[in-house]
# Entry
Amino acid sequence: MKKLISGMTAFTIASMMTVTAFAEAAISNTTITPKGGDPFDVNPTPETAGATVEFNVDPTYTVTIPASFELTGEYGQQYSGSGTIQTGKVFLNEGEKIVVTLTSTSKFNMSHEGAGEYKLPYTAEGSFGKLTNKETGGKVAEFPTSTEPASAGISFTTDETPTFAGKYTDPVVFGISIEKEPS
# Structure
């Protein structure tokens, strides 16, 4: 019985040992031979060889934009609403930043369900102030490389009080691009 217990103990200890695994990598070696090329030279002149240590990290980032923005207000007044553009960790090449832009195919005019041709103009405002060029839109936020999440506010305000009751909508497009920081 002692032999059985001793054998089981040895087996248990052996099975708990750490095993190191080695993966074979595709490495190109550099062979160093003495000057003159004779490996059997008793007084060789030493040579040196260089090697490169390298790796690559691809840029990565996450930008989150709200799916919709709700404007609220009172009858006879302008309506407004806001939201937040958020980033996760932003990891870019040196000298680069994320730029967020905003455009509207209607040139920032909300359509009214059922009011025919009536359009309600509105203005968007981001980190760089109000978008004054309603033809092209503009930049609303920038985010540099950061290990911490970041955010930028964006707001929308009607330029006038609505003429009619009802639902007003306008689809907008947020553009996300990577741009070089000015030197």
Summary: The beta strands are 63-64, 80-87, 96-104, 109-112, 119-126, 129-130, 138-144, 150-158, 168-169, 172-180.
